[in-house]
Amino acid sequence: MKTVTRWTIRIVITLIVLTVALGFWAHHFLEQSLAVLDGSTHLSGLSSSVTVERDNLGVPTIRGKSRLDIARALGFIHAQDRFFQMDLTRRRSAGELSELFGKRAVAVDKAARRNEFRVLAKNVLLRASKEERDVVEAYTEGVNAGLASLKSKPFEYSLLRLTPAPWKAEDCVLVAASMLITLQDDQNRYEQSLVTLHDTYGRKSLPFFASLITPDDAALDGSTAPGAPIPGPDVINIRDAKPVALNSLIDDGSLMPGSNSMAISGAHTTTGAAMVANDMHLEISVPGRWYRACFIWDNNRVTGVTLAGTPLIIAGSNGHVAWGFTNSCVDTADMVPIARSEQDNEYHGPGTSGILKMSRHESVILVKGSDPVKMTTDWTIWGPIIGKDSDNRPLALHWTGHMAEAFNFSLLGMEKATTADEAIEVAHQAGIPIQNILIADSAGKIAWTVAGKVPKRVGFDGRLTVPWVYGDRHWDGLLSSKETPVWSPAGVDYLWTANQRILGGEALQLLGDAGYARPARAAQIRDDLKNLVTTKPKGIVPKDLLSVQLDDRALALIKWKELLLNQIAAMHPEKGSDLDQLAEAVRTDDLRADASSTAYRLVREFKLATWNRVFTPIFAPCVEAYPEFQYRHMVSEYTLWTLIQQKPMHLLAANYLSWDDLLHQSVNDVLVSLKKVHVSPKEATWGKQNTLASKHPFSALLPSLLTRSLNFPADQMSGGDDMPRIQGQTFGASERFAVSPGHEEEGIFEMPGGQSAHPLSSYYIAGHEAWVKGEPTAFLPGKTEHVLALTAQ
């Protein structure tokens, strides 16, 4: 027995020693791929030496003699801090993820390959100006030099047992294309959903269920319209339809990709310079989406966020002009029904062009650990065939995302713009995924326009699919700068965008509709800004705009709270019952999306349950006809609330005796959801449900014990939907900043995650806690802690 014990102890000690040794070896191995922060390193191609100074958050200030040297140095540090992220981004749009992850990525790659973005990227570079191409090529050479300068390849490739492929100039375009398919839908589901609604219930159903302008809108020009009446039973009657199973996943589409931006004119700031604030809402990825940087060269200083894989400051300030973006929801795509001829690969072209042949594009997807996958896509003069309509006609996607002239690096010009008017012209020339841009200049002027390329439609508005074969409906190229709407009226005090419809009238006809966000968030920002200029007419500072960005009041749910309490009262709850506890938890708490709030969580769930019970049976035939039907992106708050208030029996599913019965079932849904997670109403805080769950890409590949340190902390988050502080478990503000050009030292900034993608780096999540808490850090880099000299010789 003593012998067994001795050997057991020896084995345990040996295992402990081996584990510790393995840990030390792994730590040492990982250290080899950390970025170089100090010292001196040769970088070929520089015209003069460049210094990279990093502060306590790892934010670099890059000082050089020329913009080309700055681009080369940025590529170097991007590669050292973020190369694997850059690789994933380019592969996402190119359809090359299977080379890293095997069969599990084939479906994603197939969808991307249909767009042929790598071919497009090469054409974009051929069209680029010499200045743009020189910057991209310098950046590309810097990326490859930075990658080669690491002592060991990025740790992700060691785990995958692969060698990173060199960066190519065209990959910078692919990074932009990847952002494009994040912000836009390369299957144009919104238009196909509108067409499905039209085909199912007729044109008379559209004004109510897919209204383009509602009474609650928060457009910059103040345009609204009376609410459309409820369609009568001659249009739609579901009362006698078979009962429909409810969706298991309740989601009204509130957390759609979007963003907030706001601007205050110089008449209301302490400095006299205008001010802009921006928080772009995206999936909270690990590492974070953006990479902060400050460029200084030849009397120029530009500070803001870069996108690893491109050489530009995407949003920020140059001392004269500050700018920020939100997704515009402008219509950049149309479905074109194809009229086939007698031959299978032939179709009727537009007007008098006669019979045309489809181009059959073949592609091979390389798959790690498996055989290559071949795929074929048929292309027309309008674009690739991506589906069929209700008449079984092929549908081609005509999209600016397939046009080389819609991509470029002209946003580079924003770095030297000195006035709002100059910045507007840069925005109109920029080839980026089309965005709202708010501009503030040091003279006090503010302006809105769209940045990117807008199609110029002839003969139709683009909302519904129409035939193009007769030649009377088509695109006449892209809108010129003079044709692109601008909003900057004299004396304007403030501007705001939150993915809502921005303008009405002729401007709306030009920009079209790709599914604007519900207006509640924009209206709340507008009213917050109005209150600011009223209470602080000449004293607004960046922290005031941050308070708007962090506004988590659930104003859109106030009427729903009252409705919920009324429904509970009508159900006559016994004292101490679950219903009674539910009412108490709703009644005694503030209606804010605070992590500690119970009222917000419970009222929100009641509304979502009602949404589900009302719309699932109404749109069931549409979903059956088109499984990807997106009613969550078209129906407004006005639509739902009007149904609840007017109680039309022909739009009430047979599951319910009355509309009150439906609402009572929604109340019970809230109680059922709480029982599933074993919490009582008073314990059901919003933070317990809204806990950050952003994970590293390797989380699905490695044991949870190993990935715990890779993922962001599971913080309980404040913020929700239909309010300025958008926040979900994996979605929210990918950055927040507020700044006046020329007064950047007073500006503020927050960002999830840190600068480095390396888990051993002290900059992996540096600054993350400030973002979680909504605590501002400085817009400009702080005191220098590390200096790296990149030498030309």
What's a concise summary of this model?
With 793 residues, this protein is of the alpha+beta class. It is 34% helix and 17% strand. It is built from 23 helices and 27 strands.
Described by strand count, sense and barrel closure, the largest sheet is: 11 strands, mixed
Overall pLDDT metric: 94
User: In percent, how helical is the residue content?
Assistant: 25-40%
Query: What is the overall shape?
Result: globular
Strands side by side in the biggest sheet: 1-27-2-3-6-7-8-9-17-18-21
Number of continuous helical runs = 23
Radius of gyration: 28 Å
Strand content: 15-25%
Strand element count: 27
Which regions have little confidence, pLDDT < 50, spanning 5+ residues?
19-25
- Distance N terminus to C terminus? 71 Å
Structural class of the secondary elements? alpha+beta
Name a few traits of the molecule.
793 residues, alpha+beta, seven-stranded antiparallel β-sheet, 27 strands
